[in-house]
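User: My collaborator sent over this chain with a note saying "see what the structure looks like." That's all I know about it. Can you take a look?
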Amino acid sequence: SVDCSFSRGVCDWKQEADDDFDWNPADRDRGDGYYMAVPAFVGHKKDMGRLKLLLTDLKPKSSYCLIFSYRLAGEKVGKLRVFLANKKTAPVWEQNTGKDERWRTGKIEIFQGAETTNSVTFESERGKGKTGEIGVDNVILISGLCPED
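Assistant: Without extra context I'll predict from the sequence alone. Here is the result:
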């Protein structure tokens, strides 16, 4: 497995240049490192911020699982979507409401055909809310199918 978490991960993360705002590091409650977050008050409704994970060395014709922690804290905070580079048009994962402020786990299967996926993009879309945040943490890439819960 490959640790792509932000504090000590080995992966290559890039802020996209042609979006509306950047994701920012936020300190974890426990004080051990940080996660990436978009506070609710940044930007205008429907503005987007994209954080891209560059993937190298993924073998063709094999399966991977991207596991990550996320939270949508606050009312009408917005949407969190995940896109794979070779399927740009539709998100492979989307969440737009947080029932509470708890962290949850997201999983995405990445199947490598002849064309390999060379990046995963986490996209935050600003909602109407003024408080809370959208956060992503503990991003891990493992080979094989995603484990059952």
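A starting point for your reply to your collaborator: The chain has a mean pLDDT of 90.
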